[in-house]
Amino acid sequence: MFKKDISAGSKSKVKSSAQRGIRAKILEQYPKLEEHIEEIMPKKEQLDLVKLPDRVALYTLGSTPLFFQHMDDPILPHLTIVHKYPDAFPRLRIDRGAIRFVLSGATLMAPGLTSPGGRLPNDPEDPEGRYGKEELEAGEVVVIEAEGKETACMVGVLTVGTAEMKKTKKGQACDAGHYLGDGLWGLTLG
User: What is the pTM of this model?
Assistant: First the structure.
């Protein structure tokens, strides 16, 4: 979505009623953020809406990007939020071979997740359950971690459920919403 460098468009203040609605939608979509929501989006602070190319709305607090949304798609967290609260989002892991493709903006393919270095929910190689016990459905927002790396490298939306991925082991798995080094990551807000 943000392969090229992007520049911020107009910036406007979000009305408090709309801010409450956005906050509620975020908590509905990411219930594990409940205990951190006051740190992320304090009620007394002013949330700003920055318009980006291709009808993307970026919600910021001052110059800190928080969440973004393309038209009526799900609200996705900015990677800075993911890095700060990694346990609040469903996550999957790609193998080493898929890293360069993900960081160049390619659509994540199922082999990157189903190969020996990848991790999906209920993985026998994941005894502590870091990647969850429940299968994820198509359309769910996921955070993608990379084998051998500490922090997440991508946030995207699953195109197929994880149960189907395990069966077919091929095809598209996840659309890239935002990844390390993309235009949104490099965006400077004044």
Answer: 0.92
Residue 171 confidence (pLDDT): 95
With a CB cutoff of 8 Å and minimum separation 6, the contacts of 35 are none
Sequential DSSP letters for 111-170: HHHHSTT-B-TT-TT-TT-TT-SSPPPTT-EEEEEETT-SSEEEEEEESS-HHHHHHH--
The domain made up of 88-179 is a member of CATH 3.40.50.300: no
Numbers of helices and strands, H then E, in the chain: 7, 10
Domain map of the chain by residue range? 11-84, 88-179
Could you tell me if 14 and 59 are in contact, meaning their C-beta atoms sit under 8 angstroms apart?
Answer: yes
Is the domain spanning 11-84 CATH 2.30.38.10? The answer is no
**Which residue has 């107009």 as its token pair?**
10
The vertex-60 CA angle with 45 and 184, nearest 5°, equals 165
* Statement: residue 120 has pLDDT above 90: yes
Q: Fold match between 11-84 and 88-179?
A: yes
pLDDT of residue 174 exceeding 80, the answer is: yes
User: Which pLDDT band holds residue 127 (cuts at 50, 70, 90)?
Assistant: confident
Q: Which pairing describes strands 11-13 and 47-52: parallel, antiparallel, or unpaired? A: antiparallel
Cβ count near 65 (within 10 Å) = 23
CA distance 73 to 76: 9
